């Protein structure tokens, strides 16, 4: 400064002198004077608050305003943790998400508007502390920093926050436990004597997961009931059914309650879904108009496949056709022979000859493969095999699959009764074949082994179904051998159908059974001598098609357990098989183990953090005022 | 004897009052509590005067003086000046100073013999100070702080500087001022001594928050112990011996 240079006062010390004696950082350069702590008179070096650390720690409370006890809510049923306002999150113990939830529940950590800088705490560290299992307590050790007084001293303190875990039922569990909580019901009915369609439907539902969201399923004599919590889910299910079976829907609603003031009404919706009575492997005698309508197919047809349309095939010529769902419903007719086990007879194939048909060039759309696979089969009834020599020669659309010696099922049209008068006439007129082959039998069933059913290579997953009330009431007395037998027959039929039809298998999830697993292990040793035999038969089930992730002991729909009210999870603390502290280590959160936790203090002493330099701004300006 | 006092619940009494060996100035308060504390202590010996400077109550920071004179800034009105001249004894010269830095109490600290000023004051002001107050003037920085009046306080018997001053600086200052100096705090660890402490040769007043440790340091360095005579002296030297490491040895 110019004044310093020209100052001539004899005893005035010039600015230059001052500059040399005091440099920026002189505090670091010179020896700091010792002062007494203003509270306890202990000699200390100067710090922003000019008190010794113990006085500072004892005087100021860093954790003021931070709660040390808080409550968390957990659902006993699904062991999820309550976050806010009907939102429940599932997280493991000692995980990052649970830590975030705990920190959100500690009041006093966030800055409030009216407190200013002194009120601000900074969270430096958070670690889990071991708690006794089943104690319903979670402990977290937090380390916070806070600026105390106006001096700029930052104190750091660790303390333990205890969370009491209380049980509260989450919304979904409440809905599951509440009786009569369904809002929408889908009643699926099919007026036939067997349950094969429903078995197939069950498998489809499992594969597509269409029953997700449904509260419960009940079975009746004629069908199944699906209960849904709201209209939308039921509608979704119905549209799924539309795509897989030919059906028609009728809806109705029932008033539960109404509020006149706000014009709101509460209803229960019921949808009746009726599936058409034709099933796979039924023998049909079509009405003349319908037969002509679908490509002039012969009137005696076999149902090959049911999807949203009905696929039929003429067993004698291999011609296929589709019956639309509404075409059926306009004029519903019954199958002439239903493929019940009792109506099917077993035939043994004696020989086959290929059949060549003239190809109609204009009918290009038809499946050529199917047509050329027609064969002339010589077969005899199994019962006739030993006793007499009666043989039958017929064309069959399944001919290409057969070899001599195979066993297959078919309809014996000479003996069975026809429902339709016209059909009777046609049979008497000799227009019907004597035998219609339906499907081939594989494996032990073909040979006639006793336990063949159990030795199948594959098995299916089942839905968890409750028996409906009607059935229960009447069935208590009658549910004797007869009904059980019928059920078993239906299941057996269904399994045979699956074995014989590759397309059907693609639509369904099938899993390896134990036998298949052991076969797999053996396969490696045997080599591939199986392959040469089966080139003709492409419908036979192979091991590759089977999925192998069905756990035999689990309950069906384990993943929907929470919604259906079933769960196999323990309560919140039951994670014994995971080592203590492992999850925390995985999430890189600190963990204080059992031994240390017993010695831990609820509140540690505060320690000052050596962070800021006092008077920094003045030192930088080198003593100048401006 | 150090007395704790507060001005309207504030501990910064050095802002509102100025004390010398010859007189005492206090700012005007709605209640007379502040004034009555000074009155009870000092009125028997020296005049205690109500005053304002430029209509403001913080006379402690705008004025500076010793028993020979009083300096007020150019913002003081004529009436105030006249009032001061009337109230103070004739031996005290009241002089207005034309200075850019008008908070004289912050930039000048003095006793009856020597004064420290802010390095930036004008030369004329420096001359006025040495004339009116009859002191030797030194331009100095106290431990990195240019506002010498705020961070340093000394009387004829001893002095205190703010706690961040290094030992070398304290020694240097002490030799300059010829009084023993100590680094200390007032008002529970506050560095601003000029605001928390006002002192003359035989009495001191501190803010209400001052701890007993601080008061004992103050009483010791300014030689203010309550007991008079030999007993007090003995007690003093006892304390001095015990607190040797905190004090600069210049007690001759």
Count of helical segments of chain A? Answer: 22
Unreliable runs of chain B:
227-234
Describe the sheet with the most strands of chain B. 3 strands, mixed
The largest contact between protein chains, plus residue counts on each side, is: A-B, 43 and 43 residues
Q: What string gives the helices and strands of chain B in order?
A: EHEEHEHEEHEHEEHEHEEHEHEEHH
| Percentage of residues in DSSP E strands of chain B | 15-25%
Average the pLDDT over all residues of chain A and give the rounded result: 74
Which class of secondary structure composition applies to the elements of chain A? Answer: alpha+beta
Low-confidence stretches of chain A: 1-27, 473-478, 524-535, 552-576
Distance between the termini of chain B: 22 Å
Task: Describe the protein.
The complex is a heterodimer of chains A (about 625) and B (about 250). By secondary structure, chain A is α+β, with helices and mostly antiparallel strands. Chain A is about 25% helix and about 25% strand. In chain A, strands 3, 6, 7, 8, 26 and 27 form a 6-stranded mixed β-sheet that branches. In chain A, β4 (about 80-85) and β5 form a beta hairpin. Helix content of chain B is about 35%, strand content about 20%. Chain B is globular and about 50 Å long. A 3-stranded mixed β-sheet of chain B has the order 1-15-14. A 3-stranded mixed β-sheet of chain B has the order 2-3-4, sandwiched between helices. With about 250 residues, chain B is α/β, with parallel strands linked by helices. The interface between A and B is large, with 43 and 43 residues.
